[in-house]
Amino acid sequence: MPYPEEAEGFQIDSAETWTEFHKRHFKLKPFGEYDVDVKISACGVCGSDVHTITGGWGSQHFPLAVGHEILGTAIRVGSKVTLIKEGERVGVGAQSFSCGECKQCKNENETYCPNIMIDTYGSKWPEEYGGVVSQGGYSSHVRTNERWVFPIPEKLDTNIAAPMLCAGLTAYSPLVRNGAGPGKKVGIIGLGGIGHFGILFAKALGAEVWAISRSRSKEEDAKKLGADGFIATNEDDWEKPHRFSFDLIVNCANSSKGFDLAKYLSLMDVHAPFVSVGLPEEAGQEIKAQNLLSNGVLIGASHLGSRREMLEMLQLAADKGIKSWVEEIDIGEAGLKEAVTRLKKNDIKYRFTLTGYDKAFGA
Amino acid sequence: MPYPEEAEGFQIDSAETWTEFHKRHFKLKPFGEYDVDVKISACGVCGSDVHTITGGWGSQHFPLAVGHEILGTAIRVGSKVTLIKEGERVGVGAQSFSCGECKQCKNENETYCPNIMIDTYGSKWPEEYGGVVSQGGYSSHVRTNERWVFPIPEKLDTNIAAPMLCAGLTAYSPLVRNGAGPGKKVGIIGLGGIGHFGILFAKALGAEVWAISRSRSKEEDAKKLGADGFIATNEDDWEKPHRFSFDLIVNCANSSKGFDLAKYLSLMDVHAPFVSVGLPEEAGQEIKAQNLLSNGVLIGASHLGSRREMLEMLQLAADKGIKSWVEEIDIGEAGLKEAVTRLKKNDIKYRFTLTGYDKAFGA
Questions:
Q1: How many structural domains comprise chain A?
Q2: The pLDDT value given to residue B274
Q3: Which domain holds residue A295?
């Protein structure tokens, strides 16, 4: 066993070979006094993983093991760690480090730190931290600063909790930052991994929730997830009954193809925020002030969420019995190929969780 | 004298002849029981007037008398008018009617009414209101619903107050709607008619105010207006010292030529709003969610302001002795030609107020 110097995981070597996973050992960053080592037992398969390995978001540090919806056990904690206990069941999400000193970091906006931003996979650590490229959760272990390691409430099953670490938080943070709650009409665009959490959490927060999708094919699912209403944007005049009525829309769409932004914006009440969390690979939309003038809508984007929001979200999920819709698949060359190929085609309702880590890497 | 069936004013006949004003009589809308007739004594010359008569904002209902920064006297009030007394000194701004019944109208968002939006000039009234095209303040009288007629505090001089009716309110509303006040760092982009009010009002509201301009040519003016700091965007790395530092920016720029939006957005603190009030004639900017992600900035636009905001702004200006920077010019074919020609070239610091109405139209 290479651990604790190395971990073992499934890496992709190039965007051209994005379905070919290679099981290899790779170096972990040097163990720091605030670090926690997590032995991984499950990992969600995030849309980001596919955008990354296919090159859709640009060039990457290959070879790379992706995966940032990690559940496991804290098997070693650094001498100064106070937030996590050895043996605890924990999660790790998409971010693994920030400076901790700047205004953003001190103000629960660590996902917007301008100084150091280490993603859980694919980021090169500064030389003083060892200089390695971070490797994600399609592997046996991750080594992460305690501030990005989260205790998992007992009531949440491992395979249900895993996808919450990125997709769940990505949906939850803009909801709570923009007042989703009783008396508010909230729209969730795009019923995929993030969007299905948008519906679950907006409902759990007490809002009136509308799913907004290209067709009615997912209407039944949306209702089961808790949606109060459903809008299909392939229908004529779909936007007209809802103009000026939404207090918040979280746009979780993974693609902007054929997206008529003006119609979506017309749904918003005066000055209501339209916040994107999906990061399509396509070119952007041309916007001029005139397009925003009829209702003074605010267009924004949201990046993950804070530590506090992560802990609150996990507790809310435990308290309300919120369950991710998960299809389990065993980690391995074949399972990973199937997972990323199907996710690329949106052929999943609504998240894969990788399991079988003991079989792949030993107990 | 044609009044009260008609008013007399200076009209433009086409975008091709936008500097040729023709003095003519034209029909007023039928007098309604909530209407107020205003005998005009002064009118500001707004950038909108030039965008309109030059065709920069598209085709118009010519012949047209523009002008929507109107000061005058209420010489006749309808039988149901309660907000305005006959003989009172009053102002009229850029809007003259909305439905009054919808959520927006009832929620002090009458500038976002989706049902009826009558601009002070250039809007065709529905047939039940007479069907005429509204004519603005380059004329002897306007007839306006009382909700868009505003008593002017005694301490405000007529020629100083006039430009506040559109430019002033346009700057004031996004400031107060987005928390400009003590402890907040506010940026005002574009030192023109609206922008100079942005500095005056942001300062009066207690914010730390930075003027953001293309060069340093207006720095001395900005400081006199009350700016605490000045940023010239033709200097290298101008944005770097200010990244993540602004709580609000009101973009008053009248043109988006050479505007590097990403640099401006990088100035914003996390989730801080970047609100445009200028409406450039050029094409928009391509935006994708990725551009908004480093700080979660919100991009918006703001349209005029509410009745309550207008009254508060005028009182604030009276209480604090705020003075528009005004160059007076007599209304008439020559004066109007000079005013719109110089405004088109930004050759004015920072607003023309048209005077001499008695000479042009009789006392």
A1: 2
A2: 96
A3: 167-301
Question: What whole-number distance in Å separates Cα of residue B363 and Cα of residue B361?
Answer: 7
Cβ atoms A250, A188 nearer than 8 A: yes
Low-confidence ranges of chain A (pLDDT < 70): 1
To test the contact with chain A by mutation, choose from B298, B306, B309 the residue with the greatest count of A C-beta atoms within 10 A, namely B298
Could you tell me if B300 lies within 8 Å of chain A, comparing CB atoms? yes
Residue B280 and residue B174 share a domain: yes
Give the distance from CA A219 to its chain's centroid: 23
CATH number for B35:
3.90.180.10
Residues of A in contact with B286 (CB under 8 A): 283-287
pLDDT in tens, A16-74: 999 999 999 999 999 999 999 999 999 999 999 999 999 998 999 999 999 999 999 99
Residue A316 lies in a domain: no
B56 to A113, B51, B257: CA distances (angstroms): 42, 5, 15
The average confidence (pLDDT) of chain B is 95
B309 found inside a domain: no
- pLDDT tens digits along A241-260: 999 999 999 999 887 777 88
- Domain membership of residue B42 (yes or no) is yes
Q: Which of A103, A293, A299 sits opposite B244 (nearest CB)?
A: A103
Considering the domain architecture, whether residues B135 and B154 belong to the same structural domain is answered as yes
Would you call the peptide bond into B280 cis, given omega within 30 degrees of 0 as the criterion? no
Residue B1 has pLDDT above 70, yes or no: no
Q: Distance (Å, rounded) from C-alpha A264 to C-alpha A249?
A: 9
Handedness of CA A42, A44, A50, A52 (dihedral sign): negative
